Amino acid sequence: MGRIKIVIAVFFLFLVLIFVISSYFSRFSRELQLSGSTVGFVTDNIPKLYAGNCVDKNILIRWENIEDKEIKCFFVYRSLEKDSTQAVKIAEVEYPATEYIDKCTSYNYQYYYWISLGDYYFGESKLSNNVSVKSNYLSEPKNVEIEIEFEQVNLKWASTSNHSNLYYKIYKNEKNDSIKSTLAGTVDYPSSEFIDPNKVYDTTYYWIATCDEFGNESQRIKLSSVSKNNLLKNIQQNETVVEFELQQNYPNPFNSSTKIPFNIKSDGYVKLSIYDVTGSCIENLVEDNYYQGNYEITYNANNIASGVYFIVLQYKDLVDKKKMVLVK
Hints:
- The protein is mainly beta.
- It has three domains: 31-134, Immunoglobulins (Immunoglobulin-like); 142-231, Immunoglobulins (Immunoglobulin-like, Sandwich); 245-326, Macroglobulin (MG2) domain (Immunoglobulin-like).
- The protein is built from one helix and 22 strands.
- The longest helix has 33 residues, at 2-34.
- The model is unreliable at 30-39 and 231-241 (pLDDT under 50).
């Protein structure tokens, strides 16, 4: 009986010794890895991690594709801290994969990710750069459309079914720069339409994003730009335009300002200019694509002298001209 106890004790001591040696080697390998050294791995060609994002309540991370015959797999590390010493290995991904989906995350947490390379000899490379992803699970608006109706810009989109969608933010900017864009308005979920009641720049760019109650925001979806020339007053696109025509300005003669009406029978490029009696172009009032419709431009002649001038409308291969008289 005593001999059996001795055998059992020796066996347990043997297991403890194996555990201690294994733990020491693992710690030693980890320290080498975090210090930038490699453990049995002969390459420093570590793939670069790209920015991650949330996909259907999971976090997707991607890395660049590299070719190396020594690579067997990728190890994925994760932490709630930016410090890599706190990172925990959560997955082993077979080579030559270039992405990993983390399905074990909690809502509204900031996660940090790293990857390393594993070879066929149990070696492991140093860690890559880290990427940070917040698990907000917000889905971007889908099927976004932009419409121009008279003087208004109307945005429409398909509402997503995500439970955390509480409202949408609409941004705009006169430049194609979403970072410096300003908030144009908000729309509560599940509404899916926004009419911009405010000023439209000469060229206006729009973006839309989904937001939650914590202030988290999805990726901003860019929309097409809108030209101010397509938002002129008195656009009557619902009327049937019979023909291309430049109508007589009114009042005429005029002092300082006058209105110039014209009709466009189909969508196309339009140029509206002012010429003097010598045939010199004084000013181009319009140079842009227009929709079919009836338009009216207000012309201010504060910078020219009294006299006879000509209004010239060019549309595709058609030209129309009217005389106007400025009296100051």
